[in-house]
Structure formats: structure tokens, C-alpha cells
Amino acid sequence: MAEHIDDMLPPAEYITDAYKGAGKLEGKRVLISGGDKGIGRAAALHMAREGAKVAIIYHQDAEAAEKTRAGIEAEGTEALVIQGDVASRPDCDAAVQAVADAWGGLDVLVNNAGFQQPRASLTEISDEEWQDHMAVNMNGMFYLSRAALPHLKEGAAIVNTTSINAFVGNKHLVAYTTTKGANVAFTRALAKQLMDKGIRVNEVAPGPVVTEIQKTFKGYDDDILKNLAAPIGRIGQPRELGPAYVFLASQDSSFITGQTIHVNGGMICNG
Fold first, then answer.
1. Which of 19, 176, 220, 245 is labelled catalytic?
2. Which homologous superfamily is 25-263 in?
């Protein structure tokens, strides 16, 4: 599945025939925020191919959400599409409850929804914009995790999306980078809190990837968008992130918690 996002970016690829499912998430019930596009859609399709029932939360793009639904169902499993704003506690509570009502519980939560807005100077970031970053990128992770916990049993997993920027910084994305650093701290602390319950908490830190969020650079600095690349020589594809989420959600990673998988094309960050 590929999709053209912008003329400055290559078409986004979400999953290919080369990825062979092995039943690693057979029968698992998964909820993914921001699952309509980008990395969230890739995670959804890869988990569906591994046998999971997959629910996604999307904010506004119903058309994109339906494409993800179609992709999940094409893998022969059940899909649930939920409209909601992760910045809203009631929406997060309702999304988790919808999954529990539909499928009798929840096994995997993927906190992936994100917001970014580049600014050249800290003085250009308004109070409202700062709070918008916190509301989506950090509050949403908190609200969904808190709502999910009563439904998560031993063997369950939470997989969060942070960013390479949390580890190396980004002068254009001070607000976004700050929230991604908070995601790292949240992941590590919650992993320790939930160890005794047998629930693992880990995160994926993507480098530059072909996703809609990159379009925020359009009009801000088109050269950044046109020249996005990792040291490996190119921008990454969402399909190259999907397997990392499968790994952290499955029992293949049963001895891993509180950790970060860096999928960034060679951006060494020592984190």
C-alpha cells in the first residue's frame, strides 16, 4: 500500500508483500492513536497481518481512516475506527471503552498521535501553540494509558512513539522536541511502575519518515522538506517502522521494557 502525500516527498509505503505475518499477535486486541496515517497506519497494517484485531483513533481525516480500515480488513481481521481528539480526556476514555465493549478487552495500546509546528524562534511560539503540543503529544499519551490500564492484563504491552528529536534536539521544533522528551521520561517511569503487573512499556524513536507531519515544514522552509534524509542517504518509509511496533507488542520482546528502539537510518544519538 503506497500513497502520494506531497510533491516534495516520495510516495509513502505502509506495508509490502515482503512482510510475512507469523501470527505473532494472533487474537490480540490493539488500539492505535493516530492510526489513520503515516507510522500509525503502518503499525496498524503490520499488526493486522500478524493476526490482531486493530482499532484506530483518528482526529479529522475520515477518508484516511477508512483507507486504514480497508487495509486492516484486507488482512482478514477486524477493524474499529474511532473519531476522537486525544487531547480530550473524555474522547480517550470513550475510545478505550469502545474497544473493550467491542472486543471484551485490550491487549496492546500504541500511543502514536502527534502534532508539530516549526518556529524559527522561541519568541514566535504562542501560549496556545505550546499548549497544543503538550495536549496532543503528552496529555493524549497520559489519558489513553490511564484509561487503558484497567483493561490491560499480564502480558499486555504499551508502545509509545517518541522521536529522534528527543535525543538530539531540533532548533526548528523546540515545542515538539520538548514533548518528545517528555514521552521518553513517561515511558521509562511507567515501565517501572507496571513491571510487577507484567505489563511492558517501550517506545519507538523514528528518524525522518515520509508522513503527513513533515508537511508542516512546507512554507516554513521548503528546503528542509525537500532535503529530509537520514545518514543512510534517504528518508525512511512508514513500512520500515511497522515491524518495530510488532516486535515491542509481541512476546518476541518479552524481556524488554522501558527501552527505546531507534529506527532512524543511522542517526547516532547514544540514547
1. 176
2. NAD(P)-binding Rossmann-like Domain (3.40.50.720)
